[in-house]
Amino acid sequence: MNIEAIKAIYTVEMRRTRKTLMQSIASPVISTCLYFVVFGSAIGSRIESVGGVSYGAFIVPGLMMLSLLTQSISNASFGIFFPKFTGTVYEILSAPVSFVEVIVGYVGAAATKSLIIGTIILITASFFVDLRIAHPFWMLAFLIMTCIAFSLFGFIIGLWADNFEKLQVIPLLVITPLVFLGGTFYSIDMLPPLWQKISLFNPLLYLISGFRWSFYEVADVNVGISLMMTAGFLVTCLGVVWYMFRTGYKLKQ
Amino acid sequence: MTATPSERVNQPIVQVRGLSKTYANGHQALKNIELDIFEGEILALLGPNGAGKTTLISTICGLVNASGGTVLVGGHDHVKQYRQSRELIGLVPQELALGAFELVEDAVTLSRGLFGKPKRPEFISELLEKLSLGDKAKSPVNRLSGGMKRRVLIAKALAHEPRVLFLDEPTAGVDVELRKDMWKVIDELRNDGVTIILTTHYIEEAEAIADRVGIISAGEILVIDDKKSLMEKLGKKQLMIELREPALTVPSSLDAYQLGLSDEGRVLTYTYDVRAERTGITQLLNDVQAAGLALKDINTSESSLEDIFVNIVKADS
Q1: For the segment A135-152, what is each residue's pLDDT rounded down to a tens digit?
Q2: How far apart are the C-alpha atoms of B206 and B315, rounded to whole Å?
C-alpha cells in the first residue's frame, strides 16, 4: 500500500478546498440560509407541521442532502477531471500507485469536504430551528455513506467527462431535479396518489427519507429499505470505478 | 559492434523485448521493439514526428497499455511489478502539463509523495536549487516561463530519486539559448548518475549530448548504436582536393574514383567509406599528381548524423 501517495493526493485536494474556501464552504452556507429564509420562515410559517415536526426543522435533513449530493459530485468530478484537462494525470498514471490508492485519495478528500459542509449546514440550521437528532449513529452512518457514495459517483463522472459540459450535465439535469422531487421540501404524503407512486422510483427519495428518519423518526419509506438503497448505490459506484480503472477507461490507451 | 564502457560494466537497467502497440483505431505505433538501456548512459531516440517515440516512452512508463511484449526495469516487469519498476523511473512529458495555481515546491512535493517517498523538504530544496529554481519555490507554476516550467517538470520527475529519467522532447519548440541550457542540465544529471533517455527530432541534439543514438521511424528502431560507431559505421567521409589551376573535366585516368568536380573546376571531391580497409587516398593523390593536376589544398569532412538519419529513413521508406 502506497500510503504516501494517498496522503499526497488527499493533501493536494484538501489544499484546493482551503484555497477556494469561499466557494467551497461559504456558498453552501449562504444558499442554505436562503432556503431557510424563503422556505422555512416565509413559506414555512403558513405550513403546519409535517408528521409532528415543524416545517423549518423538517426540511433540514433534505437541505443537508441537497448540498451533500451536489458538493460531493462536483468536488470529486472536478478533482479528477482537472488533471485530465491540464494533462497532469500523466503523473498519476506513471506513479507506483494502485487504483484503490488513487480513489481513496480523491474520493476521501471529496467526501471529507462534503462532511465538513454537512456539519456546517447542520450548525447553521440550529440557529434557525429547534433541531433534535433521534438516532445520531444512523444519522452519521447515512451521512458518511452518502458522502462516499456520491463522491464516488462524482469521480465516475469526472473520469467519463471529456469536456466541461459533460461535467455539469448530470449534476444539473439529473441530480438537482431528483433531490427536489425526492422530498427535500415535503413528505410524499402531501402528493396525489399517482405522484406518490412515481416518487418511489426516485432513488434519492430513499436517501432523504432515511436521513430524515435518523433525525425525527419520520419517514416516507421504511428505513431498512433506505439503508439498503444507500449501501446498494455505494456498492454499484465501487463496482463501476473498479471496472473503469481495470480497463483504463478514458485514462489509458 | 564495439561495446561502450557502460555496456561492459553493467546489465541493462531497462530491457524492452518484442514491444508492440496497436491503437484502437488500428494504427500500429510500435512494431516489435527490442531495446536495452544501460545504466549511466544518455540514449537519444531520434525520429520524425509520428515515429512512435512518445508511444515507446509512454508504454514503458505506464501511460499506454502495450499490445504485446515485455518491459523490465531494474529486472521488474513493468506491468506485474509496476510498483518496483515505476519507482525507478521519472518521466518528463512533452507537454508542459502543470496544475495552474499550485506552488513550485508543492508540485514537486506532490510528485515525491505519489511515488511513495516520505517527505524530505531539504532534498526538494536542494533539487530546486540544482535546477536553478531555488528562488521560484514559492511561485505559482503558471507565472513561470516555458523554460522554467520545463525545469519544474524535471524537478517533479526527479523528486523520488529515480535511476532512469525519460525526457520526451525536452527542447521541442525552444530557442537555441534554452536548448543549450537544457543540454547543460541533462549533462549535470548524468554526472549525478542518472540514466537518461530522451526523444528528439533535432539531430544536433542527439549529436551534442547522447552516448548512444537510436533511430526510430514508423514504429521500428532502424538502428541503434554508440554515437561514434554509428557515424563510423554509416558515415561517409569526403576528401576535397583544391586545385591550383581549374580543371575543365576530370581526367579519364581518375574515372575509377568517381570524383565530383565543383567550384568551376577548382575542387575535386572524393567520397570514401571510413570503414574500408583501404580508403584509396594515397593512390588517389598519386594518380591526381600523375594526371598533371597541381594541388593547392586538401581537406576532409565527415557526414553529420543528419545525413545518416536522412539516408536511413529514406532507405526505409
Answers
A1: 999 999 999 999 999 999
A2: 21
Query: CATH assignment of B5-88+163-232, given 3.30.300.330, 1.10.10.60, 3.90.1170.30, 3.40.50.300?
Result: 3.40.50.300
Q: pLDDT for B71-121, tens place per residue?
A: 999 999 988 999 999 999 999 998 888 877 889 999 999 999 999 999 999
**Cell numbers for B181:** 541550457
Q: Cβ separation of B113 and A87 shorter than 8 Å?
A: no
CB-based burial, B159-185: b 16+ in 10 Å, e otherwise: bbebbbbbbbbbbbebeeebbebbbeb
Partner-chain contact B61 A94, CB within 8 Å: yes
H-type alpha helices, chain A: 3-19, 21, 27-35, 55-86, 89-94, 99-128, 136-160, 164-170, 176-181, 193-199, 203-216, 223-247
- The answer to whether A206 and A229 have CB atoms below 8 angstroms apart is yes
Q: Using the structure block, give the residue that is written with the C-alpha cell 549511466.
A: B40
Beta strands in B251-294 (DSSP E): 260-262, 267-273
Cβ neighbour number for residue A136 with a 10 Å cutoff: 10
Question: What pLDDT shows up at residue A36?
Answer: 81
Query: Among residues B104, B28, B32, B93, which one has the least CA distance to residue B61?
Result: B93
Point out the residue among A2, A90, A96 whose CB comes nearest to the CB of B63.
A90
What are the helix (H) ranges across chain B?
5-9, 53-61, 82-87, 104-114, 121-130, 146-158, 176-191, 203-209, 227-234, 281-290, 305-316
The arrangement of strands across the sheet holding B195-200 comes to: B89-92, B164-168, B195-200, B42-46, B212-217, B220-226
Query: How far is it, in rounded angstroms, from Cα B158 to Cα A163?
Result: 31
- Would you tell me which CATH number, out of the four given (1.10.10, 3.30.70, 3.30.450, 3.40.50), belongs to the domain B235-316? 3.30.70
B87 touches chain A (CB under 8 A): yes
- For A81-134, the DSSP string reads HHHHHHSTHHHHHHSS--HHHHHHHHHHHHHHHHHHHHHHHHHHHHHHS----S
pTM: 0.81
ipTM score for this prediction: 0.82
Q: Are A96 and B23 within 8 A, CB to CB?
A: no
Q: Please give the C-alpha separations between residue A91 and each of A86, A109, A184, in angstroms, as whole numbers.
A: 11, 19, 41
Q: Inter-chain contact A90–B100, Cβ cutoff 8 Å?
A: no
- Whether chain B has a CB inside 8 Å of the CB on A8: the answer is yes
Provide, as residue numbers in chain B, all residues whose Cβ is less than 8 Å from the Cβ of A97: 114, 116
CA angle A75, A76, A77 (to 5 degrees): 95
Give Rg (Cα) of chain A: 19
